[in-house]
Known about the structure:
AB_hydrolase_fold, single chain, alpha+beta, two-stranded parallel ribbon
Amino acid sequence: MRTALTPQVRTVVGHSFGGSTVLRMATEADLGVDHLVLLAAPDWGPKGWDGGSCTTAAVTS
């Protein structure tokens, strides 16, 4: 994916596993994009995703 991120790419959208993958990539290196949009990214934490406690959050920079 990093090779596909040209200077013209300003927004990256990741769904499900792709959402968690792009989030991990963004924590490891500057992707050079202005916006990340994550849709239904799974929770890879120790407790995992229980499905019953869904919340939404708005993040602005």
